[in-house]
Design goal:
Number of strands: 7
Helix content: 55-70%
Pfam families: HATPase_c, HisKA, RsbRD_N
Largest sheet: 5 strands, mixed
GO molecular function: histidine phosphotransfer kinase activity; phosphorelay sensor kinase activity
Radius of gyration: 40 Å
CATH superfamily of the largest domain: Histidine kinase N-terminal domain
Keywords: Kinase, Phosphoprotein, Transferase, Two-component regulatory system
Catalytic activity: ATP + protein L-histidine = ADP + protein N-phospho-L-histidine
CATH topology of the largest domain: Globin-like
Number of domains: 3
Strand content: 5-15%
Bound molecules: adenosine-5'-diphosphate
Distance between the termini: 88 Å
Shape: elongated
Strand order of the largest sheet: 2-4-5-7-6
GO cellular component, one term: plasma membrane
């Protein structure tokens, strides 16, 4: 009997032995819950194609192996097989085929044995190759689906984050109105009390405390609102041509009384500044006001200085220096983060401190297409330098 016929005759035995061996193999766990048919799948096609290839009288027919193996690959992907498990089931198939053919091969001539082994290997290699091709394609399409899901999830998450920001702004708005009236009424009450009862100090202290916390809450809410507006992309740039010295003078006039209260002179040196720049005047004023008021708040003796000058590459700079407490090197990058504050030496914070001022400043600087630098030494003082384009791009 030639090998081809023998193989056809033994097909059922090979299938039974192979299915059993795959099921018993501890390294192919994915087959544990499959039915016999589920494991068997394309093996009949592979064996019959193998028989035609081995037969010298028939034309070799390899196409069924190609088709069957492609199908086998995508089925194995669906069944959750790993690539290693597939490689293992083919190795077992090779072993089972050779062990069944062994008695026949022992009687054949050397050249016949060589030919048979070579052909079986070619056919099985082709089957493995095709199987992996469709297995990989199937896995790739699963990956693509997963990626699509992830993208959708990501969009959904971003939407939620945005919605939360909206909620926060909403809440802050709601809080603002009653707070404003608390402050208004307390203020009025305080003034009336001062006129009437000079002796009732305790009462006044309570009211003053209400006022202080009310003001602080309002300050915090305003800052949080400003930040959330920026994060939601709602902060729009309104560029216009402005006079630098006028803007600096406005800030000076607003904050000079505060500095004078602490005996701190504010020096202004803007002789080397550009006359006019194109920027958002309100936002720039907010930046300078914030930095100068910080300089006053964190300085006890010495002075504050505001310097404006031209900078390279069509830019200009404004620096606010103080001779205050200074900032430790390790805190210098963090002070621009929301709610980050450095405690004073007695572990307390300044009454109006929110930790949001510099976070707002750094975002506003970005909005104005500039950058902010800090140079500070503990016990010596700090200089915040804001570098801005002479003209913002719209
Ligand atoms: P805060 O409302 O707490 O002042 P900021 O965001 O404006 O919030 O500042 C963050 C922290 O950076 C402050 O708590 C303070 O420790 C530090 N800081 C800011 N400006 C100065 C300065 N000019 N000198 C020293 N420390 C400063």
């Amino acid at each position: 009997m030639d090998l081809s016929e023998f193989l056809l005759e033994k097909t059922d035995t090979i299938i039974v032995n192979w299915v059993e061996a795959v099921r018993q193999d501890n390294n192919i766990e994915s087959a544990n819950d499959l039915s016999r048919k589920g494991i068997e799948n394309h093996i009949g096609h592979v064996l019959s194609a193998l028989a035609t290839v081995l037969s010298e009288s028939q034309n070799s027919e390899i196409q069924p192996i190609v088709d069957a193996s492609l199908h086998h690959g995508s089925l194995r992907a669906e069944q959750g097989f790993s690539a290693a498990e597939i490689a293992r089931e083919y190795r077992i198939l090779r072993q089972v085929i050779f062990s069944i053919l062994e008695p026949q091969l022992l009687q054949a001539s050397t050249s016949e044995v060589m030919r048979t082994v070579r052909l079986i290997n070619i056919v099985l290699d082709e089957a493995i190759g095709r199987c992996f091709q469709s297995y990989t394609e199937q896995r790739l399409s699963e990956l693509e689906q997963l990626q699509n899901h992830l993208t959708l999830n990501n969009q959904e998450l971003s939407r939620l984050v945005r919605a939360n920001q909206d909620n926060l702004s909403h809440l802050a708005h709601e809080l603002k109105t009653p707070l404003t009236s608390i402050i208004g009424y307390s203020d009025l009450f305080l003034r009336l009390q001062r006129q009437k009862t000079k002796d009732n100090v305790n009462n006044l202290e309570h009211i003053e405390r209400v006022l202080r916390s009310g003001r602080k809450l309002l300050h915090l809410i305003n800052d949080a609102l400003e930040l959330s507006r920026y994060e939601a992309g709602q902060m729009k740039l309104h560029p216009a041509s402005i006079h630098v010295d006028k803007l600096i003078n406005d800030v000076y006039e607003m904050l000079e009384p505060l500095a004078r209260n602490k005996n701190l002179p504010i020096e202004v040196d803007c002789d080397r500044a550009p006359d006019e720049v194109v920027t958002d005047s309100l936002r720039l004023q907010q930046i300078v006001t914030n930095l100068v008021s910080n300089a006053i708040r964190y300085t006890e003796t010495g002075k504050i200085k505001i310097t404006c000058q031209m900078w390279e590459n069509d830019k200009w700079a404004i620096a606010i220096s103080d001779t205050g407490v200074g900032i430790h090197f390790e805190d210098q990058t963090q002070i621009f983060e929301s709610y980050f504050r450095v405690a004073l030496s007695d572990k307390s914070y300044l009454p109006e401190s929110t930790g949001l001022g510099l976070a707002i400043v750094s975002r506003l600087v970005k909005l104005l297409q500039g950058e902010i630098k800090l140079d500070s030494q503990v016990g010596v003082g700090s200089t915040f330098t804001v570098i801005l384009p002479l003209s913002v791009k719209v």
